[in-house]
Amino acid sequence: MEVACFSKLKPDVNRSDIYFEIIIDLGETTSFKGMRFIPRQDSLDGIFDRYAVHTFDDMKNWGEIIGEVVWWGASNRMPKEMWFNQPVNKRYIKIGAGHLHANYISLGEIDIIK
After folding, report:
1. Structural domain includes residue 6
2. pLDDT tens track for 3-50
């Protein structure tokens, strides 16, 4: 699954305090065991090194955080994986990203691991 997004902040915003969210609609309730994030490969711009993942079944009832990761060294462009303790059966995924390295967020690819 490929997800594309682009959002830009004003240049004077303190990037360390910003928290972006990406919401993915899988189209139907889907079982998955983890996620793989492939950072942007051509630049550090938009790379983030902290994120949290929520899952939920409808847009009104956000689920609890099912995983949080801090990647030290955003210049590492290797894929990052998050595995859950048990399979998740949800329709929506919310990825909250913080500690940005630009005034926007970018990812090369997000994979859902079934």
Report:
1. no
2. 444 444 444 555 455 567 788 899 999 999 999 988 878 877 777 777
Hunting for tokens 């942007």 — which residue is that? Answer: 40
CB 8 within 8 A of CB 103: yes
- Looking at the domain assignment, is residue 108 inside a domain? yes
Distance CA 32, CA 63 (A): 15
Q: Whole-structure pTM over 0.70, yes or no?
A: yes
Q: Give the chain's domain count.
A: 1
105 CB neighbour count, 10 Å cutoff: 26
**4 vs 84, higher pLDDT:** 84
Distance CA 22, CA 48 (A): 13
Phi, psi of 17 (to 5 degrees): -100, 0
- Residue 76 sits in a domain whose CATH number is 2.60.120.260
| Longest CA span, the chain | 42
Write down the residue that tokens 């990825």 correspond to.
95
Q: Which domain holds residue 80?
A: 15-113
